[in-house]
Amino acid sequence: MRIGLLTGGGDCPGLNAAIRAVVKHALGEYGHTVIGFRNGWKGVASGDLQPMSRDDIRGVLDSGGTLLGTARFHPHRQEGGLEAVHATLEAERIEALICIGGDGTLHAASKVAESGVKVVAIPKTIDNDVAGTDRSIGFETAVHIATEAIDRIHTTAESHNRVMVIELMGREAGWIAVQAGIAGGAEVVLTPEQPFDIDRITAYLRHRHRAHANFSIVVVAEGAVPAANTSMEWQTKYGDFGEIVAGAVGEKVAAEIATRTGFDTRVTVLGHVQRGGTPLPSDRILGSRFGVAAVDAISTGHSEVMTALHGEDVVLVPLAEVAGKSKPVPQDLIRVASALA
Amino acid sequence: MRIGLLTGGGDCPGLNAAIRAVVKHALGEYGHTVIGFRNGWKGVASGDLQPMSRDDIRGVLDSGGTLLGTARFHPHRQEGGLEAVHATLEAERIEALICIGGDGTLHAASKVAESGVKVVAIPKTIDNDVAGTDRSIGFETAVHIATEAIDRIHTTAESHNRVMVIELMGREAGWIAVQAGIAGGAEVVLTPEQPFDIDRITAYLRHRHRAHANFSIVVVAEGAVPAANTSMEWQTKYGDFGEIVAGAVGEKVAAEIATRTGFDTRVTVLGHVQRGGTPLPSDRILGSRFGVAAVDAISTGHSEVMTALHGEDVVLVPLAEVAGKSKPVPQDLIRVASALA
Amino acid sequence: MRIGLLTGGGDCPGLNAAIRAVVKHALGEYGHTVIGFRNGWKGVASGDLQPMSRDDIRGVLDSGGTLLGTARFHPHRQEGGLEAVHATLEAERIEALICIGGDGTLHAASKVAESGVKVVAIPKTIDNDVAGTDRSIGFETAVHIATEAIDRIHTTAESHNRVMVIELMGREAGWIAVQAGIAGGAEVVLTPEQPFDIDRITAYLRHRHRAHANFSIVVVAEGAVPAANTSMEWQTKYGDFGEIVAGAVGEKVAAEIATRTGFDTRVTVLGHVQRGGTPLPSDRILGSRFGVAAVDAISTGHSEVMTALHGEDVVLVPLAEVAGKSKPVPQDLIRVASALA
Amino acid sequence: MRIGLLTGGGDCPGLNAAIRAVVKHALGEYGHTVIGFRNGWKGVASGDLQPMSRDDIRGVLDSGGTLLGTARFHPHRQEGGLEAVHATLEAERIEALICIGGDGTLHAASKVAESGVKVVAIPKTIDNDVAGTDRSIGFETAVHIATEAIDRIHTTAESHNRVMVIELMGREAGWIAVQAGIAGGAEVVLTPEQPFDIDRITAYLRHRHRAHANFSIVVVAEGAVPAANTSMEWQTKYGDFGEIVAGAVGEKVAAEIATRTGFDTRVTVLGHVQRGGTPLPSDRILGSRFGVAAVDAISTGHSEVMTALHGEDVVLVPLAEVAGKSKPVPQDLIRVASALA
């Protein structure tokens, strides 16, 4: 069987573990041929590819990023994109495609499957908001990096009696913010799921600093938005939150806290470091398991499915059930974050 | 409500997160009193205790070990042990007990509950073999430390063309060995679940070194045992495997590999470092969630239950269903380990 | 002898190791009394202090920040500042003062010494620009954190074919930028010591991406400035570089690269995480050695000296020789950075 | 110019940084040809070599081990060894040789230089005992790994009220033990430089545990030996310390402490993990600087010299002054270790 393989969307740690697993298992267990497409769907559309051998995946298990490269390119949103993809798949006689990616890639995968090529998706996103799976590749490493940053900022906050605001990734969902907030012992965690009330936040910080502490950590997901009752005032001051740019929310929240409380307040925008570097074991393992499961799925006739983690098990879920959906942070977790603040 | 709190069995990373969560949530949400017992059940039996305040848990979230201390003491296995425990609980008017521990602690908890004190258990063990929960506190950090060690040994194996044997913890179950083996890209993983055949192992290593590699990593759980067909010979040479001591298996396996293959072979016994140090975010979060859930459980009238992770949810399972049972590594994971070797 | 102890200026990893060494050695070897002042010179001026016992320094060796707190307060720059300092020192019968700090603290120390109190300084600054010593406390940990960030960003740069600009601390000197740049394999390193020519940089990047690479890492110290021939144009576009604010240089450089080359370019401003967290062993050791040496110096009659690292030895240098001076990155190191780009 | 390049002796982190620097600088700055010999002197003797291009050194800066491989092979100690080396060097028209290694390699380099080939050595050893340089490649990373292990063991020691003995590398000199001991806050540090008195150690531990602590960390270099007054008894019990094998000293010291004090005592032998894994920035920088300096030295006519770190400068020292010598830990450092115990 000739299997195509690609990684799409933003890079993250654990992609190489999945690529390695697909290649090792497809070649070793089934004798398939694996064709790697470079730079995601862009490489499928343009025919930029390489046959994958065991040599290509040597020593990649503990490396971040993706050896295949990636790009934010979605064939179904480009004029002629899907046609170009189909042309390449046909020319290369690709019978099945394993697509490692986030929501955009899942959507593209559904579209491509309509043409008859078998498609199995593997979910990856540091934001952890792909529906239908407990976890996606890259999330736990991102939480680790974010928590490490909070730990570091903690010592400065305490030594200087400061409020430290740290903005983390998470445009649609606050998974990284909530988990790193719990793990780092943040006093306040702001997420896209729960519009925040700046008055309540500053009241809480004033109370805390009066009562028993001289510093605070405020974690802000990049997609956090102010609640309706305060958003008017914010819009006047800072413009429309619909056009949030990196760093914007964190800086605004810090500015408001500083102005309203008079506390020495600083902001850090963690940025791209959250997607890089050596993957945690849990992401290497998840990538490895998903890679093996995807090859097994394709080899046993499955299509239009996504590998998923359900508890301790790796299962297959229909793409139709998950593409286009999102997975918000559950109330339970948000409650733990605020109970321990 | 007066709640007793203890940590029993071996220490591990994430215990302080659980202690912190219990104290913060019990005091902040419910106004309970929390009495901490020192050194596990030993402290209950001897009345060694301290009321816990918010000051006691400041700054502990990212620290390893347990601030309450622990000991390998089981009241139900000591003459008069349970009586002493009950005497203290009565004298201190303890209405409920939160016990953080492994299988021994769960068992003791069941016994103590017979007297009428409410009991909620929180599972912790780096070995991950507590039944009824996807994960126990401490496991993921142990896997991380073990994987880091394999990563380090990898570079020496390659640079010197060696077979490196590394012995990891896991007396009854091979969870650390299998997960660190997958994450570290080990060629061979030996677990208590699957008796090993030294002939097959050495044949595989010879084949590998002839075909395409000049080094190998062999991961051995401390409870790994030889298969029946080879055990006779091993018994003659090394004595009864029933009396395995730390380091024994790794050294024997390394000696056999060296003798049979002639490859330069070295052994490392990772030992106590696997239970220590800064907890990973996932163990801090699990400890925090379990701590909050245990307090909620007790406050709403539950008893003889254990907090457990099922997929993304924290749930309560009856102690009777899990105490005395063990959770072996599933075949699925073992298969991934060998598929990617 | 009654010794005062303070930490001044920005916090950094390794301060607690120095504090611990001063207290342990002063109490254990000489039987001195140690009075800790809170929040740097501010605490001396206001009489905010605590006698230090062995209990106060338990468990702090591997923690970041300073348990004494710090503040950016310089008594010699405040009206009545020095007088308040002297009043406290006299009231508390302080015979000698150990000041851990950067250039501002060294300067204040010189002024205070004029009154007759013995003064020994210990140099700390993540910027490493204190003159007279090979290294200051905090520098190596900051380089480690910065390098780790570059390593992480590297995988994203490669996976997405991007130019990644990373702004690091270093207002007066580019020590962190140069060392992290060498360690992280950066293609371009911009420092305050060498005004940069944006034309040369973009020409080099274009050449590199044409010839053999599809990504680049550009490290920018926050105090980097454009060379005279281009600064005019920059001033028109971005305003005066004399008023650089955090993030400004990195963002400007990234904007210019993106505009001139058309490459996908992103910027990360690492910020406060560079000063925090667990100190590297080398900073714990340096702090410990400086602390012991400072106590020895005071106990043997020295004053107006700074502990310093010269090669493998800890020595004393006169404050007069180092206060007010700065230590730029040597050409040798800058040459290595560019030779390996 | 045709330059040969090899890494000899045990592997360590930072070797690849040195190899990369030699290749990049020799090719980029001077247009030399670089021939890499595989597996140290063994590859020179047998003619196992590869011309080095920029492709060979891509992505290796942050990797441990040596991409050239290494072996514990010394041509001057083998019958016909030097002749074979000379034959290869002549056949390959090698004009100069850059040898990265420890004392054995320095010695071999001196011998090879007698034949007229220019030789420049680069010192590496995790033991840090090469004379003539402040630091050798690999040392700081080894100290980091060892300190991390002590940090981890610390939490178990405290939680279980134990004496934890940890054996670290260092057969001839106790550099790792002393520096990791200071950084990890060990109570006792045993080195080859100072024969130890087990009576004094156990008396100290008993005193400490009576007075104010319930746990202790004892660091033992693998080459530590008992003092004359106790060695007789030890010899009777454990045999000749002249034949120390890995793990032996640590286990014996732990056994004696347990017997004499009755404290719960455990031993960990850290072993091979100390030589592996991602190099710290300081080792990447040292390797990079030494690599550039070695190429400069050869290109400007130097021979029979070693690159060395003196304070902040990289200098050249004559091989004759350093080969065969060793660098013990200075009393100053040992004093700091015991002052802070």
From TrEMBL, chains A, B, C, D:
Mg(2+) binds at D103. One of its GO terms (molecular function) is identical protein binding. It holds the Pfam family PFK. The record marks G104 as: Important for substrate specificity. Keywords: ATP-binding, Cytoplasm, Glycolysis, Kinase, Magnesium, Metal-binding, Nucleotide-binding, Transferase. InterPro entries: ATP_PFK, ATP_PFK_prok-type, Phosphofructokinase_CS, Phosphofructokinase_dom, Phosphofructokinase_III, PKF_sf. It is found in: Cytoplasm. Residues 2-298 form the Phosphofructokinase domain. ATP binds at G10, R72, F73, G102, D103, G104, T105. Substrate binds at T125, I126, D127, R162, M169, G170, R171, E222, R266, H272, V273, Q274, R275. Its main location: cytoplasm. Its cofactor is Mg(2+). It catalyses: beta-D-fructose 6-phosphate + ATP = beta-D-fructose 1,6-bisphosphate + ADP + H(+). Pathway: Carbohydrate degradation; glycolysis; D-glyceraldehyde 3-phosphate and glycerone phosphate from D-glucose: step 3/4. The active site is at D127 (proton acceptor). Belongs to the phosphofructokinase type A (PFKA) family. Mixed-substrate PFK group III subfamily. HAMAP family: Phosphofructokinase_III (MF_01976). Catalyzes the phosphorylation of D-fructose 6-phosphate to fructose 1,6-bisphosphate by ATP, the first committing step of glycolysis. This is ATP-dependent 6-phosphofructokinase. It comes from Bogoriella caseilytica. The lineage of its organism: Bacteria, Bacillati, Actinomycetota, Actinomycetes, Micrococcales.
